[in-house]
Every structure is written in structure tokens, then in C-alpha cells.
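Model the whole thing, not chain by chain.
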Amino acid sequence: MFKAFKNPTLALIGLAIFGLGINFGFNDYIQLTVLFIMVNCILAMSLNLVNGYTGQFSLGHAGFMAIGSYFTAYSSTHWNIFPANLQFISAFLFIVGGGLLAAIAGFIVGLPSLRLKGDYLAIVTLGFGEIIRVALLNMDFLGGPRGYANIPSLGSFLSSYLFASLWILICLFTIWRVMQSSYGRGFLSVREDEIAAESMGVDTTKMKVRAFVMSSFFAGIAGSLFAHFTSFINPSSFTYLQSINAVIMVVLGGMGSLSGSIVAAIFITAFPEILRPLQELTHVDLRMVIYSLTLILMMILRPKGIFGELEITDVWRKYVRRSA
Amino acid sequence: MSDVLLEAKNITMQFGGLKAVDSLAFKIHKGQLAGLIGPNGAGKTTVFNMLTGVYQPTEGEVILEGQSIKGLKPFQISQRGIARTFQNIRLFKKLSVLDNVLIATHQHVKYSLLNSLLLTKSFTESEKNQKEKAMDLLKIFSLESKANELSSSLPYGQQRKLEIVRALATDPKIILLDEPAAGMNHSETHQLMDTIAKIREDFKLTVLLIEHDMKLVMGICENIFVLDHGMKIEEGQPAKIQNSKKVIEAYLGIEEA
């Protein structure tokens, strides 16, 4: 039991030291970008579980994110269960709540729709995402099209960062360890050959629902953190473009590679921001042109994604150790 | 005679207007090595698909150890003890040889997802046992040196063997082999005959196999069912089948007077 927490704790300490550096070394703008990168990391990793490992094409992640976001927004402005100095406990609980609510939604959507395959599943999940968005547009107590403002932040940059780090690590280690277990191999078998998997005694429907529920839980968590970091959300933050963005991260990083998802999430979030000075220089918005050209080039040059199916540990073993 | 393990009670499979299998009935006794033969398109693989739940028979039912497996899904039937291989190899191509076998042992896994997150003792021990069992099985087929290679990188004959290993890893009572010798050369087929005989002894298995290689079928099968146009035309020991006029007609056609 104790052993299980050793690596995550070490990783948390490492991330915390990195965060301290950003806290004192950079301005608010970069700090906020770092927080968005972290949200996208969680989103990409969670989607990778469904699209990469289990081989089901889901396009509805923005919907789950929206559910988490709005739950957190509503609960943290309306429910005061803890005194002010214990706010972080309630914040943590509300984030978990957002995740759980998204997971329930994932279960309800997943159970009927995961019988579908490929493009059909993509269309159903896409439709689900849009239903959530349109429903939110018409819910007046959640602000409707005006959005939800004045969501309390998680305090200073450092505390927000620590919250996000904690969740990144929970997400990373959960997915990593599940993939090392028999359940993880079950997910992979669904991707590889459903008929063979069924014949070997794997309940493929249950496996798919499991992956989908876990994935939507973490998407909800990503949404909850997003709500805290922006302090303002509206339904148009969760259009299908956001889902497609998540898919791009998974595909670019490599289907079935957590390291790839993280690297791609960093790249996709940071790259448009890095190009911003160029716009001031040329007075023309070339950002999106360069950004999309880069994506096209990367997919031509490396169609398997940055990491393919390997993890960073595999890459280390394969190339670095051998040459040494 | 020993007791019946698997029984097909007038199973019929109808695809639209086509009756692929027409009220087929047979019994397989415990420990028997039975063969299912017939010309191309006779419906042999359809029978396998009905026995393993990939297709639900339109009529009739399949009885395993006295219990009907009607309406069960393939994974439930696998858990009841019917394992199979596929005619066109269906390995998990992008996974390692070891993973292929480990997936088949998943149905015996007791730990929950939470155990794997917290790396509890039941998780580590179960993983260790699963791997040992898988490696032992691979050793029987001398595949243990390839355990970490991709299954698609194996040569064809070994892929066929791996399919059998994977089926064995589910701890079946009966194993259905769909053309295990397809594409194998003479010596490979001989080797396979020995292995089938060996696993049957070692695991106390009942075997039902589809095969076109008559030497293999006649050499090891104790009881043979001959299928033609979805109907059983003959049943019995190899000697009887070899001399049956109906079987010869089904394969070679009717002699014109």
C-alpha cells in the first residue's frame, strides 16, 4: 500500500519545484498558460484511454468537460459547507463531484452507444456533446448564453498549480496502472479484435463502458479545473471544436501513449501563444495558418504521432540506453 | 461410453433464405477427439460460430455438460469452458505474444480495478501467477523465447500455435480448432498432430477440430462428423468414413452411369 504512493509523491514534489520556479520567474500571462496546459494534459490523457487504448472513437469530450465545469461553477458559488479557511477541502470535493457527475453522464451515454463502432460512435458522441451545450444554453439558472461568471479561483497561482498537479498525477498514475493490469490488456484486446476478445472471455461491452466512464470522469475533472482557472465559463467554451482539439492532441501525441498526450497537449496549447508576438510584428494574423500547417506537416512526416505507441520510458530504453 | 460433454440439438442457422446449417445433431463425449469435415462451404465454421455464441442458432440449442448455452454471449460461453481458434488467424496483432496469452487469462482475474491502482498484494500476486501460467503454456509450444515479440511478427505456423496457446489459457473443457493445420507443410502438420495429442493428455481436454488435411483427421480423430450443404451425412470412426459412399460422393461427386 505504502509503495503505491511513493512514485506519485516524488512526482508531485518534482512538479511543485517546477511550479515554484514559474511562480517567481514568470508573469501572470505565462502562469495562466501553464494552467491551461495542465487542464489540456488531463483532457488528452483521458481521451487517450478511449480513443487510443480502447480504440473507440469518441468526439464528445467537450460535453463531459462542460458537465464538470458547470457543476464546479454552481457548487462553489452556491454551497458553503466549509469555513473560509478550509475552502480548499470543499474545492477538492466539488472537483471530484464534477468528475463523478461527468462519469455518470459517461455511463448513461456509453451504455447504449458503445455497441456502435467507428464513425457511428463518433457521430453519437458528437451529438451528445452538442446536446449538452445546447441544454446549457437554455438553462437560465446556469446563466444560459450569458455564461457563468465570478467562479472563485483556487487562490494564488501556486495553489491552483498544486491542485492541477495533483490531478494530473492522479490521472496519469490511474491510467498508467490500469493499463499495466489485466483490465488494461482487456482494453487493448477490444481495440485489436473484438470478436477474438469476446471468444477469449473478455466482456467487451463492459470493458468499453469501463474505459468510457473512467475517461469521462477525468474529462469532468479537467472541466472543473478549467472553471476555476478562467473564473468565467459559457456554453461556447465547450463546442465540438474543443472535442476535436482533444482528439488532435491524442492523435498528434500518438494513439495509446500517455507521454505523447502530455507532450502534444503542451505543444497544442503553447504553440499558438508562442506565435502571438509574430502577429504584433507583421500586423497580420498568421497564427492559425502556421499552426495548421505545422499540424499537417507533422501528420505527413510522422503519421503515427510523436510517440507512436511508445511511452517515454520505452523510448529511453530503446534509444538512449542502447547508444550508451 | 463416457458421458456427453457437448451436445448439439438440431441446431439450424438460417441467413435470409439460405440454410447454412440444417438441424444438425451430434454428441461429443468427454475426452474424445472429434473431427468435423466436409467440402468447402459445407457450413463447418458456421457450426463453430454457433457453438461459441458468435451466431445464435435460429433453431435448436447447444448443451454443455447438461446445461443449455442458448442466448449466452461469446465471453460467457468462453467462461463456461468452450475455447476456440479461428480459421483466419485472429491474434491481437499489435500486442506481444505474452499479452495475447494474458488476455485469455483475464476471465480468471479476481482483483478489482482499485487493487491495480493501489498495487495491492492480490494484484501483484495475481499478475505474477498469470504470467507464470502464460509462460508455462508458451513453453509447451516452445514459444517462450518469443514472449516479448509482436504476435504479428511470428511466422505463420507459430501464429497458429499461439492461437492454440491462447485458447488453452482460458482453461477450457473443450477446445474447438478451426483448421489448425491450414497452410502448414508436411512436417509441421505432423508436429501439430503430436501436440494436439499431447495437450489432450496433459490438460484432459476434449477436442473438436475442423480440418481439410485428411491424413491428420484420419490419423488422430476418434469420431468424425461429415457435413455437406449444412447437413450431417455421415458419422463414425475414420475407417467407416473412408469407406462411406455418401462421403466420397460429397467430395468427388456422383459417378455417372
